[in-house]
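To illustrate the input format used throughout this study, we show a single complete record. The first block contains the structure-token representation of the backbone; no residue identities are included at this stage. The design step must infer an amino acid for every position from geometry alone.
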């Protein structure tokens, strides 16, 4: 029996257009798994489970963030060791029970358990699709690749949040909105199984010297501990990116749990709340189609510094507002700031990380970034319990402003023309 020969890997978006497009679709489905919850779960906690303390209500986001952060680490390590595709498939298998558990949940602990599984799913699948797209794109168009990846994911978060809110208003908080997630998981598992191909050979090609900035440079020997410390503390660009990523997802985690409840104080309809919840990831998602590619032309640092400052401004507008119009403006500004930052941070990691250690470096960055979900949920819940919902948004705005200063001081420009050396 003859096996089909493996295709010879070639770097570049055009050369890998079919596989890249499939991975964009898969990542949109990853984002949709989060979007099914965003509008509905905070309201479900209040109306069906009778939860009143914000900190306890936000435990589902904290559980999601911690498990997603841990899954990112394993996704990076295992994808370097065993390949990208097996990790992607495992992630989608873990997603299948999540919507069913949310539909049937008799207690809030079922919701928390479902979000533990969702966190594992998101860590394994999103990290793997990021690494696979970086593998395929090569160095020249890395920002564009990350812009397309993150745009697909967060546009799907927005569309699904909006659709789930509408379905909840028409048919109730359960079960109909969560049937979206079940359909997404089944579809993504099928695409990943039958059509997505392994991309680790592309990383090997880049590491060997083809289209690499320094073909003669030896592959550095770095332990997992070295990579963790470099990404977290020692390497200026990687550590600056990690803290900015954490603050980004702190804002997202806070918005996920707090914004629906804040918007409900103005007695808005579920559809209106769904629109407001969707605006933030919607602008964020679409904006990345522009910002990722623009960072390939103009560099990474200006986008990240201005983006963190813009997020602080958007949060301040939301904190100052008490109605639909002000909240909508603030959500748009917050989404624009996040769009400037999100794909660009991943491009920074791709710029600096050696291709042979790409999965682990991306994994560590995403550990820090996704711990922001838990930090945002817990911080937002505690501040809201103590001094109110608006005060929690002000705290996030202040943290974002400080993060912008850290980036301005610590991050060096990592994007170089082909043939130029990137600082170590």
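Output of the design step:
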């Amino acid at each position: 029996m003859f096996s089909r020969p493996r295709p010879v890997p070639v770097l570049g978006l055009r050369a890998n257009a079919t596989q890249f497009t499939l991975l964009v679709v898969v990542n949109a489905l990853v984002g949709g798994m989060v979007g099914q919850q965003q509008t509905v779960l905070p309201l479900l906690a209040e109306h069906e489970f009778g939860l009143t303390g914000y900190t306890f209500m936000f435990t589902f986001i904290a559980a999601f963030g911690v498990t997603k952060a841990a899954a990112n680490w394993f996704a990076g390590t295992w994808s370097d060791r065993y390949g990208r595709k097996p990790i992607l498939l495992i992630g989608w298998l873990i997603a299948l029970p999540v919507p069913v558990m949310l539909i049937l949940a008799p207690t809030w602990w079922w919701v928390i358990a479902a979000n533990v599984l969702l966190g594992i799913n998101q860590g394994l699948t999103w990290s793997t699709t990021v690494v696979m797209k970086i593998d395929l794109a090569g160095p020249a168009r890395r920002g564009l690749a990350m812009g397309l990846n993150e745009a697909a994911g967060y546009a799907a978060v927005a569309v699904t949040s909006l659709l789930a809110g509408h379905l909840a208003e028409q048919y109730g908080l359960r079960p109909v909105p969560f049937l979206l997630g079940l359909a997404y998981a089944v579809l993504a598992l099928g695409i990943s199984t039958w059509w997505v191909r392994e991309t680790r050979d592309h990383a090997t090609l880049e590491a060997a010297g083809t289209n690499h900035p320094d073909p003669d440079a030896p592959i550095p020997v770095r332990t997992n501990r070295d990579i963790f410390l470099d990404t977290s503390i020692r390497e200026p660009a990687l550590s600056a990116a990690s803290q900015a990523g954490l603050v980004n997802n702190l804002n997202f985690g806070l918005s996920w749990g707090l914004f629906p409840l804040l918007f409900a104080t103005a007695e808005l309809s579920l559809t209106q709340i769904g629109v407001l919840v969707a605006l933030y990831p919607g602008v964020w998602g679409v904006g990345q189609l522009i910002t990722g590619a623009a960072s390939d032309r103009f560099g990474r640092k200006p986008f990240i510094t201005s983006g963190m400052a813009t997020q602080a401004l958007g949060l301040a507008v939301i904190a100052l507002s008490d109605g639909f119009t002000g909240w909508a403006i603030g959500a748009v500004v917050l989404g624009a700031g996040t769009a400037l930052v999100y794909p660009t941070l991943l491009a920074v990691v791709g710029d600096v990380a050696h291709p042979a250690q790409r999965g682990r470096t991306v994994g560590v960055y995403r550990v820090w970034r996704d711990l922001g979900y838990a930090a945002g949920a817990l911080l937002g819940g505690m501040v809201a319990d103590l001094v109110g919902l608006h005060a929690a948004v002000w705290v996030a705005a202040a943290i974002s402003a400080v993060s912008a200063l850290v980036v301005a001081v610590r991050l060096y420009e990592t994007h170089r023309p082909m043939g130029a050396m990137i600082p170590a």
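Structural context for interpreting the output: The chain is about 80% helix and 0% strand. The CA atoms of residues 96 and 364 lie 26 Å apart.
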